[in-house]
UniProtKB/TrEMBL annotation, chain A:
Its EC number is 7.6.2.1. Mg(2+) binds at D390, T392, D781, D785. This is Phospholipid-transporting ATPase. Pfam families: Cation_ATPase (PF13246), E1-E2_ATPase (PF00122), PhoLip_ATPase_C (PF16212), PhoLip_ATPase_N (PF16209). It comes from Labrus bergylta.
TrEMBL record, chain B:
InterPro entries: CDC50/LEM3_fam. The keyword Cell membrane applies. It comes from Labrus bergylta. Keywords: Cell membrane, Cytoplasmic vesicle, Disulfide bond, Glycoprotein, Golgi apparatus, Lipid transport, Membrane, Transmembrane, Transmembrane helix, Transport. This is Cell cycle control protein. Its main location: membrane. Residues 1-31 are annotated as: Disordered. The keyword rRNA-binding does not apply. The chain crosses the membrane at residues 48-74, 333-355. GO terms for cellular component: apical plasma membrane; endoplasmic reticulum; Golgi apparatus; transport vesicle membrane. PANTHER family: CELL CYCLE CONTROL PROTEIN 50, CELL CYCLE CONTROL PROTEIN 50A.
C-alpha cells in the first residue's frame, strides 16, 4: 500500500518511549546513474542493441547464414555486424564507466553526520533518512535536507541551484521556525509527502516534541528544503535532517533522459528501407520460383557432372524450397546495408561538431559558443516550417532599463544617465519632474512601495574595499533589479516584513504585507496592469491607464503599483488564512491562491513604471531572414498585447502595410454579444479574408515577395485561445481549431500574447499535428519556454539571463537570437542536403551492387552462386565506398555558406523534405537499376567470347565478377565525385584514395595463396584482368556510359534551374565576403 | 575547359590569438578554434558543370571512341574463326552413333571423325578451343566442389579432402585426388586435327598443349604433393575420381612434367566458366614459317575420341579454331559499343553546341535591357 506521506524521526529519536520504535525503511543514499555492472554488461548491452530493428535484421541474416547452407559465408555479414556491435558496445561501455566514476565520486564523498552529539565522518552513500547532516560553505548537499540550523544569525542560508536548474542566483532558504538551538535534544518528527520530481514543490509538517508540552507543529515548504546537488553559499555551515536520500532525491528523480526526437529524414529512411525490403523479398521469391521451374526440366536439376550429396537428396522438398528462399535472401541482403546506419550515425555525430566549432556562434559576452545536446536532429534544422519564439529574452535582450514612471497620472522620466555609475541613485536624481508634481506623500509612497515590494537582495561582497562599486543586485526577476536600480534604496528596517505574497505567472503580481514603525499595516502590490486594474478602485484607473497603454505601445514593460491599508482585523484574518494555507499538506497552492485573492482587493493605485527591454542584436534581420526562408514565425509570449505588438513591429514581423487580425478578449467584447458568438463570427470573417479571398498559393513561388498581396498578421491572446481550443461543444472545438489554423497558415506572422507556459506547448502541439505535419522549432530562454522547447521537433535554447533550464532541455543552445539565422539557413540547409544525399546514395549504390548478382542467377541455374568474391562482398560497403560518402556528408557545401546566408529563399528549395521525396527516390532507384543492368549485361556481352587475353587464354566466373565489381566501384565513386560541389583536399584524398585502395587491395588479395582460406578464388584474377586490353576497354566504356546520362542531366538542369543565376555570379564573391568578415 | 573557380579561402587561425590576447586562459579554451577545417572553410575546388564545360569533353570522347571502336571492330572482323558442332544430335552427324551408344562402363573409347573445310587460310597462331553449351560450370554446388589446398599440394588435404567435395570426396574408402565435382567432370574428349592436302593424304597438325593455362595457376596455385618426381608414390593412398579412366598422375603419357595437378588441361578445366555456354582453350597451333599459313584453306578432318556425354542434359559440344588479336578472340561487341557510344557523344556534343549557342545568345539579349 502506498502511503501518501512519510514520517521521519529526526536523529532517529523516537517521539515517545513507550511506542515500539520501528525505523521505517528508506532507500540508501547511493546514486546509481550507471546502466550496467561488470557482470550484466554483455548480456544487457547486447539485448539492448538487438532491440534495434536493423541490428536484429542483420542478426537474423547472420544466423541464417550459420544454420543454412548459404552462398556467402557467415563472415560476410557477421564481420560488419560484429564491428558495429563492438563499436557501439565500447562507446556505451565507456560512457557507463564515466557514469560509474561520477557516481562513485558522489557516493564516496565524505560528509559529517551528527550522531548522539558526536560528529562522525561518513561516506555520502551511508546517509540514512533521519540523519542530521552538517554541510559547510561551498559544499554541495549530499541529499535532500530540511534546514534545521544555520550559522547565520537570521536563520537563513543561501543556496545556488546552478547544477539543478542552471539558475546561478542565490536563493534564500529558511530554518524551520522555533527549532531549538541544541540539535541534540531536538525531538521531532517530520511528516512529508512521498518523493516527487518537482524541484519547486514540497509540503511537509514538523512535529516538535518538548517535554511536558503539547507538540508544536510547523509547516515545511520548499523554502525549508535544501536539494541535493545545490551548493551552500554565503553561510558558514548548516545542519539539516535528511528527508529524501539516494534515488529518491529530487535531483535523481529529475535525472531522466529526454524523450527521443526522431527526424523526418529518419522516417524517410525507414520508408525507403521498407521498399527495399520488398524488393529484396520479391527478388528472393522470383529466384526461388524460377529455380524450381527450371529444375523441373529434365536433366537440369542434377546432371551427371553435378550430383547432389546424400543429405541434399534426403531433404524434404518444401524445406528445401524454404532454405533456398533464405539463401537468396542472404545473397541479396546487401541491398540493405548495415553500413548505412553506421555512416548515418557517424555523420550526425561528427557533423554536429561543426556547430560547436563555429566561431560565429561564439558570444564574447558570455564567452560561450553553441551547444549541441543531441546530434540526431542536425538535418531537421534545414526543414523548419514554423518558428515559435518567446519574446522576452529571446527577441528582446531581457536587459531592463528604467525609462519612466508615472505617479497619480504625472509622468517622471529618467534622465541623468551619469548617475547610474554604481547602480544606486539619489532620490531626486533620476526622477525629475516633467510636468507637474504629484503630492509629495504620494511620491514617497510610490517609491516606498517599489522599495519594499521586491525580492531583491543586495549581494554581500567579501572584500570590503570593493563593496561600494561592486554592489550588485540579485533577484528572482530582472525587472526588479532594474526598478530597484532606478529608485531609492531606503532602509527597509523601518518596516517589519510580515508576509510575502509570491509572484507567479498566473496571478501576474506579487504583494508584501509590512508593518511600519508607527504600527500601520500596509499591503503593497505590484504587477501587470491586467491583474492590478480589476483589484483597485475604478476611478483611479483611468488616468494611469493612458500612460500604461502609451508605454506599452512603445514596447516598454509596464508594472502597476498599488497599496492598501490593512486594519487590525483584516490583517489578523489574512495572517491566519495565510498560515493555515501554508501548513496545509494537500492543495496548498490552491488554498494559498484563494487567500491571496482575498487579501489583494480594494487597493488604491499609486502609479506605474515603464522599463525598456531592448531588442536583441539583429533581431529584425533574423526574423526577416526566417520569413524569407519561408518559415512562419509565431511569437508566443506571456506579455501584454501592446508590448508584444510593438516588439513585433520592431522586429519587422509586422510591417506597416500588414493588416492585423485581432482575436483578443477586447475584440470579443466589442460586439456586446456573447463571447462565443462573437468568436464564431470573427473566426469566419478572418477566415474569409485571409484564406478564401487570398489568391491561391502557387507552389514554390514566394508569396511574400509579391507585393500585390495583402499581408496579414494575426493576434490572439491566451484567454481567447483557450476558448478556441476548449470550446464548449466538441464539434465547435475541432472546427474552430481548423479555422484558426487555416487563418494562421495564411498570415505572415502570428502573435500569441498572454500565454501561460502550457499554452505555448499546446499551440506548438496543435501546429505540429496539423495537416502535413510541419516541422516546428521553438526557441526560448526561460523556464517558461521549456514546455514548448520539449514539444517542438527542434528545441533551441538561448543562453540568456533567465537561468539555464531552457538550455538544458533544448536540443541546441545558442548564445543569441541572431545565431538562429546561420544555424538554420547555413548549417541546417547543409546538413539536410548532406544527409539526404547520403541516404539516397546509399540505397543507390547497394542497388547497383546487388542487381548484377541477382541477374547472374538467371545464368547460373538459380543456384545462389555469388557473382563477387566474399572479400568484395564484405569490403564493398565497409572500405571501398564508405569513406567518400562520409567525407561528402561532412564537408559538402553545394552552395557556399555566405550565399546561403545572403539568400534566405534558397531555404525554400529544400522545404518539405524535398530531397527525400518519392520522386527523387524513384530517380535514384532507376539510376541504380540502370547501372546494375549496364554493368551486368555489358560484361555479359563481352564474355560471349571469354577468350579475352592476347594469348588466347580464357577468363572464368571470378574474372567476370571482378570486372563487374571494378566497374561498379569506379562508377559509384565517380558518381559521387560528380555530385560533389565542394572539393576540399579531404574529398580528393578520400575519393582517389578509395579507388587506389581498391586497386591495391585487389592486387594484394589476389597476390597471395591465403593459408586459411578454403578456396583461392581470386588468385591473380585481378592482375590477369588488367593484362587484358578488352577488360580495360569494357571497364572504361561502362563507367563512361553509366555516368553519361548523369553528366547530361547536370548540364541540362543547371542553367534552367531557378537558382543558377543567383548562385553562379555570387560564388566568386565569397572570397571577398570572408575578407570583410575578418 | 572546366568552368571552375578555385576558391582559396584564407586560413586565418593566427588572428584569433592576437585579437583575444586580453582574455583569460579559460576564455581561449572555450572559444572555438578559428581553423579553416573547423569553420568549414577549407580551400575548395568548386567545379560547375555547364554545357560550355562539358561540350568539349563530349567531342573529345567522340573523337577518341570512334577510332578505337573502328579499330576494335576491324580487328575483330579480321579474326578468323571456325566453329563446328560435333555433339551428334542429328543422325547425319558422324558422331551420332557415339553419342547414342554412350555408356560409362565401356572401356574402349568411341571414335568419330568430322570433315570440314576452311575456306580461308588462318595466317597467325591458331587457337583450338572446345566449347560446351548448357553446361552449368557456374552452378554453386559445382563451383564450390573443389579443394584448393589439395590442389596446392597440401598433404593433409590430400588425405582428408574438404567437405565441400561431397559427394566426390571419397571413393571406396579412399580419398579422391583431385576431389570434387569439377575435377570429376574433367572434359576428356581428345581432339586431333588432320589436313587433307591436295593428294588426299592426312597430315597431322601438331597441337601444342603448353601455355593454355594461366602461368600463375600452372606454377603457383596448382602444385603436386611432394614435387613432380614420382607422382605414383605421392598419390598413393588416394583414389582416382569416379568418372576418370586414368589416375591423375597418368593424365599425360607424353610429357611427364604435365601430370598430376599441374596438367594444363586439368587446370584450364578447373577455372570455372562464367556462363553456361563457354569455350576453353584446348590446344595451340603454332605458326611454323612466315611464308605458309598456319592452317591453309582446304579439307580437314577432326578426329574425336568421344568420351564426354552431354546429351543427357541437352548440352552441345563444339570445336573452335580461332586466331587472336590484341583484344583477344572474336567479339564484335566492344567495337560496336565503342562506335555507338562515340557517335552518341559526338552527336550530343553537336546538340549541346546548338543549345548552348542559342541559350547563350538569348541570355545575352535578355541581359542587355537590364
Amino acid at each position: 500500500i502506498r502511503v501518501d506521506s512519510r514520517t521521519i524521526y529526526v536523529g532517529h529519536r523516537s517521539s515517545s518511549t513507550n511506542e515500539a520504535f520501528i525505523p521505517p525503511k528508506f532507500c540508501d543514499n547511493r546514486i546509481v546513474s550507471s546502466k550496467y555492472t561488470v557482470w550484466n554488461f554483455l548480456p544487457k548491452n547486447l539485448f539492448e542493441q538487438f532491440r534495434r530493428i536493423a541490428n536484429f535484421y542483420f542478426l537474423i541474416i547472420f544466423l541464417v547464414q550459420v544454420i543454412v547452407d548459404t552462398p556467402t559465408s557467415p563472415v560476410t555479414s557477421g564481420l560488419p555486424l560484429f564491428f558495429v556491435i563492438t563499436v557501439t558496445a565500447i562507446k556505451q561501455g565507456y560512457e557507463d564507466w564515466l557514469r560509474h566514476k561520477a557516481d562513485n565520486e558522489v557516493n564516496k564523498y565524505p560528509v559529517t553526520v551528527l550522531e548522539d552529539g558526536r560528529r562522525i565522518r561518513k561516506e555520502s552513500e551511508k546517509i540514512k533518512v533521519g540523519d542530521v547532516v552538517e554541510v559547510e560553505e561551498d559544499k554541495t548537499f549530499p541529499c535532500d535536507l530540511i534546514l534545521l540550523q544555520s550559522s547565520r544569525g537570521d536563520d537563513t542560508c543561501f543556496v545556488t541551484t546552478a547544477s539543478l536548474d542552471g539558475e546561478s542566483n542565490h536563493k534564500t532558504h529558511y530554518t524551520v521556525p522555533d527549532t531549538e538551538k541544541d540539535l541534540e535534544s531536538l525531538n521531532a518528527t517530520i511528516e512529508c509527502e512521498q518523493p516527487q520530481p518537482d524541484l519547486y514543490k514540497f509540503v511537509g509538517r514538523m512535529h516538535i516534541y518538548k517535554t511536558n508540552q503539547e507538540p508544536a507543529v510547523r509547516s515545511l515548504g520548499p523554502e525549508n528544503l535544501l536539494l541535493k546537488g545545490a551548493t551552500l553559499k554565503n553561510t558558514q555551515k548548516i545542519c539539516g535532517v535528511a528527508v529524501y536520500t539516494g534515488m529518491e532525491t529530487k535531483m535523481a528523480l529529475n535525472y531522466q533522459g529526454k524523450s527521443q526526437k526522431r527526424s523526418a529524414v529518419e522516417k524517410s529512411i525507414n520508408a525507403f528501407l521498407l521498399v527495399y525490403l520488398c524488393i529484396l523479398v520479391s527478388k528472393a521469391l522470383v529466384c526461388t520460383t524460377l529455380k524450381y521451374v527450371w529444375q523441373g526440366k529434365p536433366g537440369q536439376d542434377e546432371p551427371w557432372y553435378n550430383e547432389k550429396t546424400q543429405r541434399e537428396k534426403d531433404t524434404n522438398l518444401y524445406l528445401k524450397m524454404f532454405t533456398d528462399f533464405l539463401s537468396f535472401m542472404v545473397l541479396f541482403n546487401f541491398i540493405i546495408p548495415v553500413s548505412m546506419y553506421v555512416t548515418v550515425e557517424m555523420q550526425k555525430f561528427l557533423g554536429s561538431f561543426f556547430i560547436t566549432w563555429d566561431k560565429d556562434f561564439f558570444d564574447p559576452e558570455i564567452k560561450e559558443g553553441a551547444l549541441v545536446n543531441t546530434s540526431d536532429l542536425n538535418e531537421e534544422l534545414g526543414q523548419v516550417e514554423y518558428v515559435f519564439t518567446d519574446k522576452t529574452g529571446t527577441l528582446t535582450q531581457n536587459n531592463m532599463e528604467f525609462i519612466e514612471c508615472c505617479i497619480d497620472g504625472f509622468q517622471y522620466k529618467y534622465q541623468d544617465e551619469s548617475s547610474e555609475l554604481d547602480g544606486l541613485c539619489v532620490p531626486d536624481g533620476p526622477v525629475s519632474k516633467l510636468q507637474q508634481k504629484a503630492g509629495r506623500e504620494r511620491e514617497e509612497l510610490f517609491l516606498r512601495a517599489l522599495c519594499l515590494c521586491h525580492t531583491v537582495q543586495v549581494k554581500e561582497s567579501s572584500e570590503q574595499g570593493q563593496a561600494h562599486e561592486q554592489r550588485g543586485f540579485i533577484a528572482s526577476s530582472p525587472d526588479e533589479v532594474a526598478l530597484v536600480k532606478g529608485t531609492v534604496v531606503e532602509r527597509s528596517s523601518m518596516y517589519e516584513l510580515l508576509h510575502v505574497l509570491n509572484f507567479d505567472p498566473v496571478r501576474r503580481r506579487m504583494s508584501v504585507i509590512v508593518r511600519s514603525k508607527s504600527g500601520e499595516t500596509l499591503l503593497f502590490c505590484k504587477g501587470a496592469d491586467s491583474s492590478i486594474f480589476p483589484r483597485v478602485k475604478q476611478e483611479e484607473v483611468e488616468r494611469i491607464r493612458m500612460h500604461v497603454e502609451r508605454n506599452a505601445t512603445e514596447g516598454y514593460r509596464t508594472l502597476c503599483v498599488a497599496y492598501k491599508y490593512l486594519s487590525e482585523e483584516e490583517y489578523a484574518q489574512a495572517d491566519a488564512g495565510l498560515r493555515e494555507a501554508r501548513l496545509a499538506l494537500q492543495d496548498r497552492e490552491q488554498k494559498l491562491m484563494s487567500v491571496y485573492n482575498q487579501v489583494e482587493t480594494g487597493m488604491s493605485l499609486i502609479g506605474a513604471t515603464a522599463v525598456e527591454d531592448r531588442l536583441q542584436e539583429e533581431a529584425a534581420e533574423t526574423m526577416e531572414a526566417l520569413q524569407g526562408a519561408g518559415m512562419n514565425v509565431w511569437v508566443l509570449t506571456g506579455d501584454k498585447m501592446e508590448t508584444a505588438k510593438s516588439t513585433c513591429y520592431a522586429c519587422r514581423l509586422f510591417q506597416r502595410s500588414t493588416e492585423l487580425l485581432e482575436l483578443t478578449v477586447r475584440t470579443l467584447e466589442d460586439g456586446g454579444r456573447r463571447r462565443e458568438e462573437r468568436l464564431h463570427e470573427l473566426l469566419l470573417d478572418y477566415h474569409k479574408k485571409a484564406v478564401q479571398d487570398a489568391p491561391p498559393v502557387k507552389a514554390g513561388v514566394t508569396r511574400r515577395w509579391s507585393s500585390a498581396n495583402q499581408d496579414y498578421g494575426f493576434i490572439i491572446d491566451g484567454a481567447t485561445l483557450s476558448m478556441v481550443l476548449n470550446s464548449s461543444s466538441e464539434s465547435n472545438a475541432s472546427r474552430y481549431k481548423n479555422l484558426f489554423l487555416q487563418i494562421c497558415q495564411n498570415c505572415t506572422a502570428v502573435l500569441c500574447c498572454r500565454m501561460a507556459p502550457l499554452q505555448k506547448a499546446q499551440i506548438v502541439k496543435m501546429v505540429k499535428n496539423s495537416k502535413g505535419c510541419p516541422i516546428t522549432l521553438s526557441i526560448g530562454d526561460g523556464a517558461n519556454d521549456v514546455s514548448m522547447i520539449l514539444e517542438a521537433h527542434v528545441g533551441i535554447g538561448i543562453k540568456g539571463k533567465e537561468g539555464r533550464q531552457a538550455v538544458r532541455n533544448s536540443d541546441y543552445a545558442i548564445p543569441k537570437l541572431k545565431h538562429l539565422k546561420k544555424l538554420l539557413l547555413a548549417h541546417g540547409h547543409l546538413y539536410y542536403v548532406r544527409i539526404a544525399h547520403l541516404v539516397q546514395y546509399f540505397f543507390y549504390k547497394n542497388l547497383c551492387f546487388i542487381l548484377p548478382q541477382f541477374l547472374y542467377q538467371f545464368f547460373c541455374g538459380y543456384s545462389q552462386q555469388p557473382l563477387y568474391d566474399a572479400a568484395y562482398l564484405t569490403m564493398y560497403n565497409i572500405c571501398f565506398t564508405s569513406m567518400p560518402i562520409l567525407a561528402y556528408s561532412l564537408l559538402e557545401q553545394h552552395i557556399c555558406i555566405e550565399v546561403l546566408l545572403d539568400n534566405a529563399t534558397l531555404y525554400r528549395d529544400i522545404a518539405k523534405n524535398a530531397m527525400l521525396r518519392w520522386g527523387l527516390f524513384l530517380y535514384w532507384t532507376l539510376l541504380g537499376v540502370f547501372h546494375g543492368l549496364l554493368f551486368f549485361f555489358g560484361v555479359r556481352f563481352l564474355f560471349s567470347n571469354p577468350a579475352l587475353q592476347d594469348n588466347g587464354q580464357v577468363f572464368g566466373n571470378w574474372s567476370y565478377g571482378t570486372i563487374v565489381f571494378t566497374v561498379l566501384v569506379f562508377t559509384v565513386t565517380l558518381k559521387l565525385a560528380l555530385d560533389t560541389r565542394h572539393w576540399t583536399w579531404i574529398n580528393h584524398f578520400v575519393i582517389w584514395g578509395s579507388l587506389a585502395f581498391y586497386v591495391f587491395f585487389s592486387f594484394f588479395w589476389g597476390g597471395i595463396i591465403w593459408p586459411f582460406l578454403k578456396q583461392q578464388r581470386l588468385y591473380f584474377v585481378f592482375a590477369n584482368m588488367l593484362s587484358s586490353v578488352s577488360a580495360w576497354l569494357v571497364i572504361i566504356l561502362l563507367i563512361l556510359v553509366s555516368l553519361l546520362p548523369e553528366i547530361l542531366l547536370v548540364v541540362f538542369r543547371k542553367p534552367r534551374g531557378p537558382n543558377a543565376r543567383q548562385i553562379a555570379p555570387v560564388t566568386p564573391l565569397s572570397y571577398k565576403h570572408l575578407k570583410e568578415d575578418d | 575547359m572546366m568552368a571552375s573557380s578555385y576558391n582559396a579561402k584564407e586560413e586565418d587561425g593566427h588572428h584569433s590569438g592576437a585579437a583575444n590576447h586580453g582574455g583569460a586562459g579559460a576564455v581561449k579554451s572555450k572559444k572555438p578554434d578559428n581553423t579553416a577545417f573547423k569553420q568549414q572553410r577549407l580551400p575548395a575546388w568548386q567545379p560547375i558543370l555547364t554545357a560550355g564545360t562539358v561540350l568539349p569533353a563530349f567531342f573529345v570522347i567522340g573523337l577518341i571512341f570512334i577510332p578505337i571502336g573502328i579499330g576494335l571492330y576491324v580487328s575483330s572482323n579480321n579474326i578468323k574463326e571456325f566453329e563446328i558442332d560435333y555433339t551428334g544430335v542429328d543422325i547425319s552427324n558422324p558422331c551420332y552413333v557415339c553419342a547414342k551408344n554412350f555408356s560409362w562402363n565401356s572401356t574402349t573409347p568411341c571414335h568419330c571423325s568430322v570433315n570440314f573445310t576452311l575456306t580461308q587460310p588462318f595466317e597467325s597462331n591458331v587457337f583450338m578451343y572446345y566449347g560446351l553449351s548448357n553446361f552449368y560450370q557456374n552452378h554453386r554446388r559445382y563451383v564450390k566442389s573443389r579443394d584448393d589446398s589439395q590442389l596446392n599440394g597440401d598433404h593433409s588435404a590430400l588425405a582428408y579432402p574438404s567437405k565441400e567435395c561431397e559427394p566426390y570426396r571419397t571413393s571406396e574408402g579412399l580419398p579422391i585426388a583431385p576431389c570434387g565435382a569439377i575435377a570429376n567432370s574433367l572434359f576428356n574428349d581428345t581432339l586431333e586435327l588432320y589436313y587433307i592436302d591436295l593428294n588426299g593424304t592426312r597430315n597431322e597438325i601438331p597441337l601444342v598443349k603448353k601455355g593454355i593455362a594461366w602461368w600463375t595457376d600452372k606454377h603457383v596455385k596448382f602444385r603436386n604433393p611432394g614435387g613432380n618426381n614420382n607422382l605414383t608414390v605421392a598419390f598413393r593412398g588416394t583414389s582416382k575420381p569416379v568418372n576418370w579412366r586414368k589416375p591423375v598422375y597418368e593424365l599425360d603419357s607424353t610429357d611427364l612434367e604435365n601430370n598430376g595437378f599441374i596438367n594444363e588441361d586439368f587446370i584450364v578445366w578447373m577455372r570455372t566458366a562464367a556462363l553456361p555456354t563457354f569455350r576453353k582453350l584446348y590446344r595451340i597451333i603454332q605458326k611454323k614459317s612466315s611464308t605458309t599459313p598456319t592452317l591453309p584453306s582446304g579439307q580437314y578432318i577432326l578426329d574425336i575420341n568421344y568420351n564426354y556425354p552431354v546429351l543427357s542434359f541437352d548440352g552441345r559440344k563444339r570445336m573452335i579454331l580461332s586466331t587472336i588479336s590484341w583484344m583477344g578472340g572474336k567479339n564484335p561487341f566492344l567495337g560496336i559499343a565503342y562506335i555507338t557510344v562515340g557517335s552518341i557523344c559526338f552527336f550530343l556534343g553537336v546538340v549541346l553546341l546548338i543549345i548552348h549557342h542559342k541559350y547563350d545568345t538569348r541570355n545575352n539579349s535578355a541581359d542587355i535591357p537590364n
